Amino acid sequence: MLQARSVPDSPHHVLAFDSGIGGLGIVRALRAHAPAARVDYLADTAVFPYGEQEDQFLVNRIVTLIGEAITRHRPQVVVIACNTASTLALSALRAAYPATPFVGCVPPIRWAARQTKTGVIGLLATRATIRRPYLTELHAQYAPRCTLLAHAAPLLAGYAERLFREETVPDQLIEQEISGLFASPAAAELDAIGLGCTHYTFVLERLRALTPPHIAWLDPADAVARHTCTLLQTLPAASPAPPSPAHAWFTAMPENPAALAAHLPPFGYDEIEVWSAPAPLDALG
Predict the structure, then answer these.
(1) How much of the chain is in helix, strand and coil states, percent to nearest 5?
(2) H helices of the chain, where?
(3) Is residue 283 very low, low, confident or very high in pLDDT (cuts 50, 70, 90)?
(4) How many CB atoms lie within 10 A of CB 205?
(5) Among residues 262, 235, 232, which one has the least CA distance to residue 31?
(6) What is the number of other CB atoms lying within 10 angstroms of the CB of residue 30?
(7) How far apart are CA 49 and CA 227, in angstroms?
(8) Phi, psi of 195 (to 5 degrees)
(9) How many other β-carbons are positioned within 10 Å of the β-carbon of residue 230?
(10) Is 144 a residue whose pLDDT tops 90?
(11) Pick the catalytic residue: 105, 146, 197, 229?
């Protein structure tokens, strides 16, 4: 197994972006590998969940929102800690902000292909990720000899948010969300399943408990963090050094904010802050 690469103690500045709390799994891994880095977080809770939104609406919204964050806070690297946003908007983001390095999350098809012994691999993701041609391209490029069973679980991200807040989610609800993954006759040989939504980090232990023990569940959060650290090693320290503490912004107050805020300190955030849109030009001055 590859050893995680850490960044020397220098104040780099990273912005992580997701539709909700899913990207916090990547933030946790980033803090382990680059403890001196400032990692701000921006969650677009106003339109959560992304996996159920219309494509062009999301592209326009993500490009605009990330642009506002780059202008205001000048992060050195932006991590799109969301599979739906990455597969949909990374190209548009790189075209719009060519001076900013972006790190995205993609379904771990290549990893699953390397892991499997049977040649049957799975992907659990949102509807948006499952239906996108990008997934077909990944399959053809990295796992052409594997049978891919891809299943959309539209409610699972919401269940992950509830579990993050330590709310009760019955096993039956999770089983209903993942049952389609095991409906195919080929599922009898399924032995490696990739997480295609960063939210699923926070339901991973339940997934392992509810499925056969021989199945390897593959969470790419640590790999994304290590790739980000590799990129940070090529950059100078932020100048001026970013202030502390780091911020956790939400575009709308999330559900049960007190419970959510109580679980943010281990990720480096003291409180929930509501992201405010910039004032219209005709309202300035």
Answers:
(1) 45, 15, 40
(2) 24-33, 55-73, 83-96, 109-115, 127-131, 133-142, 156-164, 171-178, 204-210, 221-232, 257-262
(3) very low
(4) 11
(5) 232
(6) 30
(7) 26
(8) -85, 120
(9) 13
(10) yes
(11) 197
DSSP symbol at 44: -
More confident residue, 53 or 279: 53
Task: Give 180-216 pLDDT, tens digit per residue.
Answer: 999 999 999 999 999 999 999 999 999 999 999 999 9
| Residue 82 · residue 22 · CB < 8 Å | yes
Report which of 13, 17, 26 is spatially closest to residue 224, judged by C-alpha positions: 26
Residue 2, pLDDT > 70, answer no
- Token pair, residue 226, equals 């290590």
**Gyration radius from the chain CA atoms:** 19
Tens-digit pLDDT profile for residues 80-97: 999 989 988 999 999 999
- Tokens in use for 140? 């053809």
Cis peptide before 245 (omega within 30 of 0): yes
Is 197 catalytic? The answer is yes
| Side-chain half-sphere CA neighbours of 125 within 13 A | 28
Token digits for 255?
């559900």
Taking the alpha carbons at both ends of the chain, their separation in whole angstroms is: 57
pLDDT category, 279, cuts 50, 70, 90? Answer: very low
| Predicted local distance difference test score (pLDDT) of residue 1 | 35
